[in-house]
Amino acid sequence: MCLLGTIVALFLGACAGVSTSQGVRNTSRTFTTVVLDAGHGAHDSGTRTRRGVLEKDLALDVTLRVVPKLREAGFRTVLTRKRDVFIPLDNRVSISDQQQNAIFVSIHFNDAGRKPVAGVESYYFSPESKTMAERILRSLSAATGAENRGARVARFRVLRTNHNPAVLMECGYLTSLRESALITQAAYRERIAEGVARGIIQQRGGPLRGANSENVSENGAERVFSLSAPQW
Ligand SMILES: [Zn+2]
């Protein structure tokens, strides 16, 4: 981030090179906090497998598996939800916006109706998020063997209004019999989580140096909504 540039921008009304799209912070290579957003929750179940396993539960499971991997690599994690609760999209974005030096990663599963589609995709809106969306997707595809269906621009609210670089990962199609049979296995979800975590860590150029796990509270999930959590 460029403080001087921001101050200059206040006077000149422009700040070339600092924010290229509606005030999105340029933290995609410097971040130390990862806001993890498990899609859906409570009455909003998302999509489901033909056997009735719900996207909201699978997304939360994967999200909770990503947390320890990032923390081990020295990152601070903030979750928009850690239980089966409904969090409005705007609240998810505010949780993200209140974090300093952060990125936002939303976890979802996909639905193709009756079409025989399988594979993984990622979505982004701001140009600051493009490389991140591509990198995490490559890592997810490599870790799972799922087809890389590409990173695309989408106007999803959690992406479009976010002030941090933000991506939405579609970690597979619940409507695919073959893929949903994998996704409903814990071992495969662990691979999804590994792929996502590894992609995030690669985006930062590797684990954070000087990371000291003793500085971190044992119960990271308790940081949900704890917006005043100390930076480190
Ligand atoms: Zn979803």
Bound molecules: zinc ion
What CATH calls the topology is: Aminopeptidase
Tally of DSSP helical segments: 7
As laid out across the biggest beta sheet, the strand order is 2-1-3-6-4-5
The shape is globular
**Biggest sheet statistics:** 6 strands, mixed
Helix amount, in percent?
A: 25-40%
Count of DSSP strands = 6
CATH superfamily membership: Zn-dependent exopeptidases
Tell me the CATH architecture. 3-Layer(aba) Sandwich
Q: Beta-sheet strand percentage? A: 15-25%
Distance between the termini: 17 Å
Using the coordinates above, name the CATH class.
Answer: Alpha Beta
Order of helices and strands: HEHEHEEHEHEHH
Rg on CA atoms, Å: 17 Å
Mean pLDDT: 86
Poorly predicted ranges (pLDDT <50, ≥5 residues)?
Answer: 1-20, 210-232
